[in-house]
Structure formats: C-alpha cells, structure tokens
Specification:
Length: about 525
Amino acid sequence: MASHAANLWVLLGLGLAGIFLMTKRLKKTIKADFGAFIQKLELLPPPQPAPPKAPHPLTGLNFAVSDVFDIEGYVTGFGHPDWLRTHEPSTRTSPVVLALVEGGATCIGKTVVDELAYSIHGENKHYSTPTNPAAPARIPGGSSSGAAVAVAADFVDFSLGIDTLGGIRVPAAFCGVIGFRPSYGVISNTGIIPVSSSLDTVGLFAKDPSTLRRVGLVLLQLPFSVQRNPKQILLADDCFELLKVPKDRISQVVTNSTEKHFGRQVLKHENLEKYFSSKVPSLKEFYSRKINGDSKISSLTLLANVAQILQRYEFKRTHGEWINSEKPVLDSAISAQINETLDMTDKEIEICKLVRTEMRLAVNNLLKDDGILVIPTTAYPPPKLGSKEIFSDDYQNRSFSLLSIASISGCCQVTLPLGYHDKCPVSVSFIARHGGDRFLLDTVQTVYSSLQEHADTVAKSKLSPNAVKQEHSAEAVKEKGNQAYKDKQWQKAIGFYTEAIKLSDNNATYYSNRAAAYLELGR
C-alpha cells in the first residue's frame, strides 16, 4: 500500500506538471487532490480469513464515495454547505459501503457532488469544481464529479456515485473512465440521500474492466454463471446522428471490435425513435397532454421530457420543505429547474410512471437475454469550464435524449472510454436488458481491450471521411440484403449484396452472402 501511494504521488506530480501551462491560462489553482475530495477518512476491511478460506474478493483495492452516501459519524453533505449545517452526523453507514469494506476494500474519503446532486455538469461554486484530469479546461460532468475525478487521477481503484439522469455516465464520459449504472433496484439505496426515487441508481467508476467486474459482482451479489457471448449487437443509428463529434469515430470502433470477437453477423442496426414510438404508447398520451406545438417531436425527446419531469417532481416532493425553510443559495440554473412551477396532475404523473413500465418492457423485448444496445453516452464533448453551452436547449435535448433511455427503462448501462477527439475524451455506451448486469459486465470484459486498440487505430486512420461513409453505406445495404434473404426474396437480396460490394469490395461477408442467395435462387 505504501509503494502504491508513492506511485500515486509520482503520477500526480507528472499530471500537475503536464497541466501547469493550462492552469496558468485558466487562472485556476489545481489542488493536490484535483478538488475531488470533500473529506478524507479511512474505513478498514476486516482481517483476512484463515486458510484454506479464500481471501476477501476486494483485497488490496481502495475506493471513495460521493457525498450522498451515509458514513457513521459524518454528516452527509449533499453538495451544499447549508445541508451540511442543518443535518446531524449519520448514525449508520450505508449498506453498500459496508458491503465493499467487508469485501476487503478500504474506503479513503468522500468526494464532491453537484449542488444537491441535481445536475449533470459537475460544477459546484461552494466547494469548487473538481479538475477534469483528462481535459483540465473542461467540466468533469456530474453529479458524481469528484468520484470520477478520483478514479481518473488514480487516487483510488474505484469509486461510488449515484446516477439519476446521468450522474455516473456523464462524468465517466467526460473524464475518460468506465462508468456503470446497474439495473434499477438491484442495489439497495438505503443510507443514500435520494434525488429522484424512481430513477436513482447506485453506480460505480473504475479505470479497467477487471476492477469494474470484480466490484460489480460484489455489489450485485450475483451467483456464478457461465459467461455468454452476445448474439446481437444493435447500433442505434438515430442516436449516433445526435453526436457533435464524427459518428464514425465511435461506430467504426464498435463495428471493428464486434467483428473481431463475435463475427459480423451479430451486428444489427436499429432506429430507436421509431421503435419507441410504436412500443411505448403512453408517450403519445404524455405528448397530447403536455407538449404543444411541433407535431414532429421525436419519441427520444419525449422520453427526455418525461425523465426531467419525474426528477423534478420527486426531488421537490422529497426536499421541497427543506428548500422552502432554509432557502439555500443555489446555482441559478439548478434553482430555476427546482423552483419552476410544475403544473402536473396526479394522472399525468401516473402516465410518466406508465412510460417507465412500457419502456422497460420495450427494451427487454428488443434485447432479450443476449442483446447489447450501443449508443453514444453523450452527444457533446465535455464543454469548457464556465461555458453557457450547457444551458442551451440543444445541449439539454441531445444529452437527455440519450441519458433517459436507461434512466426511464431501468436497464443497465456501461460507459466505455474510446480515446480522444480534438483533445477531448470520447466514449460509447453498452446497454443490456433490466437484470442483465452480469451479461453486460462479461461482455465489457471481453471487448474492452479490442475497443481500445481499434479506437487508437481509427484515431490515427488516414481513411478519408468519404471512404468511411462508403463503408457504413455498404453495411446499411447489406442489412437490407439480409432482410430480403430472410424474406426469401433471393433476387432482391442479390441486388443489395451486389450494391454493397460496389461500395466496399474488400469485404468477404458481402461476397459469401451473395453466393448463398444465388444458391437459394438456383434451387
């Protein structure tokens, strides 16, 4: 542990040296802990069991927790000094934290969260915004900003946070680490300050997939099972259209890695806007009651609206009395959202909850037990510190359209870093059905190294944008050929495969598929 700590300080020194010029330009002082921690402490694991019993599963790992988790003897601060001032020290430690300590890990501190853990930006004027180690001039993302920074800066092996509408996934994406939002309800929220009870999920950050899986299995308390490979990997094409970075920078990496591990045949394409429009009928009822104007508003935008309304409604129901009595000084954007009049009838809230039920069923039916849905984690790269971009309607709509899929359905999602684009971290997210957490963690473990290799290759690739576009067009045409083949329309399938070959003539799959269609036609 001592040598590990020494290495951390060496890394910290290098990191500080590397961002010294940036800090001068920003006129911001970088703290020794990157501003990640709000309080240092130490919760030690129990002694190791005597042989021949196996050692504790998390032996040798240290971690931190966001300041929404109760730890006995400490006030849970909830990202605001007025909350800290008006609450007593906790009398019990959160069961999730206890389970990790009893599993052999050492807890070394509490980390900064957004004010009242409400936003996804990671900026906190009361405790200062933690510095994003991956991009010091950019926001770290929130609400679990400090927990992500602590992992990204190598202060801890993993950390805990809470994800309501992106509180784990956004900072993971912006800080270039792995973030895991488990299936809703599979991990106890006892001993955690709630933000929105029907959306909140305990989540975790890690630097590598082995640690993620190791900790995840302890948290989820899952029995041993044989690892399964996915039989379908669905790229949500319409979600990739929301990206503000080149979509091929991400989709091509996933395509290449999938082909390497599972074969090209498992790759499928999906339009989620159309799918949810047909499979989540309560969205139409929500639209007819609450959304006026644009009749072409997408189902993903409607989902984003439902998620934000649920968060605001449940937050005010839980914390409204404290806010009204204490009148805490809040960031203007957070204050505007919290204090906005929410003109919702009980019936309309019930419709929002019905959307949740239908969404879970829709995603579960789409993915079944062996499917992975692939979407961008966030539409934008991390915005600059102090940027007004984060308050724009476009930023909000694109962000929550992606984040609401797992939040509303309650399905599990892992955010995976894919290197950098224009000096900013980029990421992708894998989603599995509700309850498919082990399957998702196993899949991540299998493909992670390959994703990193292909991300590096694509980043350095000299392929022209037009050539990459042709490859994707060829894939889309091939999918049409596959559908025609399934429908036994052999001549039509041959035509599609021939078109794909013209677009990309070095792909053996297109030739073999066309040959199979010719054989069927001959019969």
